[in-house]
């Protein structure tokens, strides 16, 4: 077995060095192609026996892997090699190997498919017809059996397994989860407050834990912190909504104003509309 | 995570030599299939399988045996 593996390895190395010379030599050698194909045939036979016996690693697997890679190299360009593989029931052997694999999308299946594609992609109608007759295509459907979870399939196709209260609950859960990023934005905006600087005479943005507490208690709109009398004087204009202001002063610098801009309100309304509509589409 | 997976797939997309032989339809499918939670070997196997099927189907009128295709008269009989 080790000798056969070594021989196939030498052939692969020679093919890497000089593909045309090795292919011509193999074609000239009596039964040279048949001997290489016998490796695949014995590998397919042992694979079917293992599948019927319940699996288990075989000693011939390294030889099979090396032979598959060698055949993949040989069938890349040489038309004679492709024709020989198609006529000598090579597709049947490849189909047996693919079907016997536990992982139908593993590297062995990939090598088998690469060999089959090399033979078929040349445009030979004869090879394509032989592939259809060989049953190789019957080994392909398990490849496309994608590992999508049943719950995801139900979610996409309409969640028919849930009752109506369950659907309603899932709808509100979706709206809540979609609005979470908006809540974070809302919270971060409340961390920034404007402090009145007496020296400059204007409001300056400032970040502090003072407004962190105000954000937790969720004061809704322009909350004025400081002296209530000064605050009412400062917010007597239409710019600030003094009716909804809250007083919890502990800042000695001056006035603290939690500013919620109108853009945030518009953004939140847009986001909530998106969440509600997308929830309706999903459920 | 999606960005990392896309970068990983872009590398596979540029380095794999088998992709030169894969069909255009298989490549089109693989532009979306990288989102699936599959390994690199699995993605390659799917692409190769799609290419094999595409190569056979593209020449089905010439490659398939006559008894498998069915004649026009058979189709008429089935329709009736």
Can you describe what's shown?
The complex is a heterodimer of chains A (283) and B (80). Chain A is an alpha+beta fold. Chain A has helices spanning 2-17, 19-28, 32-53, 61-74, 79-87, 90-100, 107-120, 125-134, 150-157, 164-190, 209-217, 228-234, 262-282, and strands at 192-197, 202-207, 223-225, 256-258. Chain A has a 4-stranded antiparallel beta sheet. Chain A is elongated. Mean pLDDT of chain A is 72; it is low at 153-157 and 209-263. With 80 residues, chain B is mainly α. Chain B has 6 helices and no strands. The longest helix of chain B has 19 residues, at 40-58. Chain B starts with a helix and ends with a helix. At the A-B interface, α7 and α8 of A face α3 of B.
Distance between the termini of chain B: 55 Å
Give the helix proportion of chain B (percent range).
over 70%
Which range does the strand content of chain A fall in?
5-15%
How would the global form of chain A be characterised? elongated
Query: Please, how many helices of chain B?
Result: 6
The value of Rg of chain A in angstroms is 37 Å
Gap between N and C termini of chain A: 60 Å
The biggest sheet of chain A amounts to: 4 strands, antiparallel
Outline the secondary-structure elements.
The complex is a heterodimer of chains A (283) and B (80).
Chain A: H1 2-17, H2 19-28, H3 32-53, H4 61-74, H5 79-87, H6 90-100, H7 107-120, H8 125-134, H9 150-157, H10 164-190, E1 192-197, E2 202-207, H11 209-217, E3 223-225, H12 228-234, E4 256-258, H13 262-282
Antiparallel strand pairs in A: 1-2, 1-4, 3-4
Helix pairs in contact in A: 1-2, 1-4, 3-4, 3-6, 4-7, 5-8, 6-7, 10-13
Chain B: H1 2-15, H2 24-33, H3 40-58, H4 60-63, H5 66-69, H6 72-79
Helix pairs in contact in B: 2-3
